[in-house]
Amino acid sequence: MRTRTGPIPTQTHEPAIEIAGRLGPRYDEILTPEAVGFLAELHQRFAARRHDRLADRMRRRFEIGNGHDPQFRHDTRHIREDAEWRVAGAGPGLEDRRVEITGPTDPKMTINALNSGARVWLADQEDATSPTWKNVIEGQLSLRDAIRGELSFTSPEGKEYRVTAERTPTIVMRPRGWHLTEEHIRFTDRTGRTMAASGSLVDFGLYFFHNAQQLIANARGPYFYIAKLESSEEARLWDDVFTFSEQRLGIPHGTIRATVLIETLPAAFEMEEILFELRDHCAGLNAGRWDYIFSIIKNYRGRGARFVLPDRSEVTMTVPFMRAYTELLVKTCHKRGAFAIGGMSAFIPNRRDPEVTQRAFEKVAADKNREAGDGFDGTWVAHPDLIPVAMAEFDAVLGERPNQLDRQRPDVEIEASQLIDVHIGRPITAAGVHANVSVAIRYLEAWLRGLGAVAIDNLMEDAATAEISRSQVWQWIHQDRATEDGTAITREYVEGLIGDVLGEVERRDGDRFDDAAALFREVALGQDFPAFLTLPAYSRYLVETDPA
């Protein structure tokens, strides 16, 4: 028997990116050879580590599901106890963030955001964007043109949109989370293995490569909101991406500024560690309330009745676990010189209904009054008409000061048990179950048509709120819950509600309600629980390839 000694020969390939999506007008301005080469470099250096971090997520979710509640980490205690370190803080144009507007990056919404009067615009390629290939690349085109003062838009009806504001908001772009792929871009590594590109690296890489130098010339900078982080190790990965990218383009270390959304339960236990890993690039943290609620449900969906939440409308910012999470966030941020940015109230005005508008103003004012009083340095709104409402509440607290970083909150002491105290003491109602089914199906129908942020029943819905709706239904079924009137919440019961919803909506040629209902059945009624509803939805309905 012959044996081989020495190294095993391996075949090596030059890392490469292939564009698999159709090329529309001006796509070549974004997908330049140089930009595509940059994406290949990012993937060669960081794609494997991304997969490792995603595997860590699965292990942690398995542990929580099997009874191991998250705790503040013992191995990083030294980071929390070291009082000396601080984050980089605000970059140019981020010193005052009292009101930020969020929204997708299509030309019309981009122009509306830039004309809104907000201090910051969260240019969202994540939960407010349905990640069609068109939205991904044309969103990059909108941002490229806006940053150069070249953006205009004419609607199909002939209405012209232009940026007219003398002072436009500072742009903070939100790429997709680590878990999402971009199937229209394929990466081949050195071993010859081909895989879908990372949505995070694609969104970040294209925006940074094309716009970093121009943003610096505009006295701003390449700023990012980082979504769905679950650990400080994931934060370290982003920091390494930032450092490499700065070196690659020859701009000073620390030019990038990141604001991290604390919108997952595991991340709430590692806020200081996340700040520490990103300290050279970090501007602050944001309380991403809707995804945080979804994360609680996802992680505790199988842990028994005491972890079951009531109607979505009853899970407000004043319930115990949400109070604990937000107060800890403010204290942690200000301890380290980081901005604490509040979340988005879902209420929106209706210009055709003064009563709805007044109710939205009152709800949003109360929400922002609470945030400003708690010490937040800024907040989010989803509609331009809400900017004066939110601004008034923060002006009343901040006055001429750009922030309240000096408010340290020594009164706040949060124990691990408080972050998972989900007892609310309110029932599940038949109306609540129906609302979840209705909202989820109507949102998914719009998402499948390419719309990521949708006004439904005078609330702004995005992927995060749809996740709450479907995950609550899944948990109520699997935990044998009943409505307040004693009706068991079963698959058969929810199937009846799906039929009711499909009978209630206005059907049109080409609508996607049948697909939306099928998708809802899969992610809410199936035995398995998909970690994100967007994963099967994207792969099944949004992936297109060029037949040529």
Helix content: 40-55%
Question: Uncertain runs with pLDDT below 50, 5 residues or more?
Answer: 1-6
Number of strands: 15
Number of helices: 19
First-residue to last-residue Cα separation: 50 Å
Strand order of the largest sheet: 6-3-2-13-12-11-10-9
Radius of gyration, in angstroms, nearest whole number: 23 Å
Into which percentage range does the β-strand content fall? Answer: 5-15%
Report on the architecture of this protein.
It is a single chain. This protein is an alpha/beta fold. It is 45% helix and 13% strand. The chain has 19 helices and 15 strands. It has helices at residues 27-30, 33-65, 77-81, 107-114, 133-147, 199-217, 232-249, 265-268, 271-277, 289-300, 320-335, 354-374, 387-398, 416-419, 430-448, 463-478, 491-504, 513-525, 534-542, and strands at 16-19, 99-103, 120-124, 152-154, 160-162, 170-174, 181-188, 194-198, 223-226, 257-262, 282-287, 339-344, 378-381, 454-456, 459-461. The strands form 4 sheets. The chain has an 8-stranded parallel sheet. A 3-stranded antiparallel sheet has the order 1-7-8. A two-stranded antiparallel ribbon has the order 4-5. α12 (354-374) links the parallel β12 (339-344) and β13. α2 (33-65) runs antiparallel to α7 (232-249) and α17 runs antiparallel to α18. The longest helix has 33 residues, at 33-65. The radius of gyration is 23 Å and the shape is globular.
